[in-house]
Amino acid sequence: MTEGPNLSLPLAVGGGGWRQRLKLALGYVLATLLPGRVRQIREGKAQEPFTHADRVIIAAMVHRATRRGESLDHLAYLHRNMWQNDSVTGYHAAVEDRFTNWFLPHHAVVIDALEQNLASLPPGRFQTLCEIGTGSGVTLDYLQRRLATRGITTCIGLDLSAAQVQVDAARFPACRFVAGDATTWIPANANPGWIIFCCGGVLEYFPRATLERLFADTAARCAPVRWVIVEPLDLAHDLSSDTTSRLFGFETTWSHPYPHVVRHAGLTVYYQRELRFDGLRWQLMVAGN
Fold first, then answer.
1. Stretch 263-273: mean pLDDT
2. How far is it, in rounded angstroms, from Cα 216 to Cα 224?
3. What is the mean pLDDT of the chain?
4. Is the bond into 224 cis (omega within 30 degrees of 0)?
5. What per-residue confidence (pLDDT) applies to 285?
6. CA–CA distances in Å: residue 88 to residues 25, 92, 106, 167
7. pLDDT tops 90 at residue 46
8. 10 Å Cβ neighbour count for 68?
9. What is the distance between the alpha carbons of residues 258 and 280, in angstroms, rounded to a whole number?
10. pTM as predicted
């Protein structure tokens, strides 16, 4: 859920218009003429920075896959590369007002639900909160102060960008910040008594199989664990009948049926709610065991 300055969205195809049609036509031609380059991109072996030719080829690959309903899991690494780039520091600074405009008035109700859940448990069951995709760190700083009375003594901000976590660590010394990929860092470091939080569009960049493995790992190893999720959904995704994950949005990310996925991983849904505002649809959830 980027839509801000300073980022080159790797899987964005764009809207209509003759310029976009020309870009896609060129991409299809180059993909036909350069099958070796297509294979390198598909297998994650192409080195960045990508050329203009690479980018139009990728646009054609995305367009073809979405038109045919094919998987784009093999290109998820392009999202990861974008978020670990040093340029994201400018992006996160530019959109920090989402904490005031989105989180506090709309999304913070999920923290109310978390607090109610924690209040029903014996003291000391949860001590650590880890935010995946912490960005500017401003939400984590808020949670560190708010949840201290609930027994949370350690707040960790996990982000792909080493440059970003350096900025955050200097700004919010009461929290700990780590540069790492959640798909490997969480399985290697999370322990029982952790709350894992993500907000504003993080898990939307994870392919379905990757997300399932992450939920299942924490369900098996980290009990008691809590997941607190605020993620965007496709406006047309009917979660009551469609338990698949579908590509959506201008970035070409994944709309996941989160209640179904977490239950399939062995977690219980304690709270769920959907919100719609500013033309966006959000899934709010507290789940765990």
1. 98
2. 13
3. 95
4. yes
5. 98
6. 30, 6, 24, 11
7. no
8. 8
9. 17
10. 0.94
101 to each of 7, 11, 36, 267, how far by Cα in Å? 21, 27, 46, 31
Q: Which one-letter amino acid corresponds to residue 88?
A: V
Residue keyed to tokens 């929290």? 175
* pLDDT in the model for residue 207: 98
Q: What is the pLDDT, as a whole number, of residue 74?
A: 94
Q: At what angle are helices 18-33 and 52-68 packed, to 10 degrees?
A: 100
Give Cβ neighbours of residue 67 (< 8 Å, ≥ 6 apart). Answer: none
Residue ranges of domains in the chain, CATH in brackets: 18-83 (no CATH), 95-288 (3.40.50.150)
Mean pLDDT over 198-218 rounds to 98
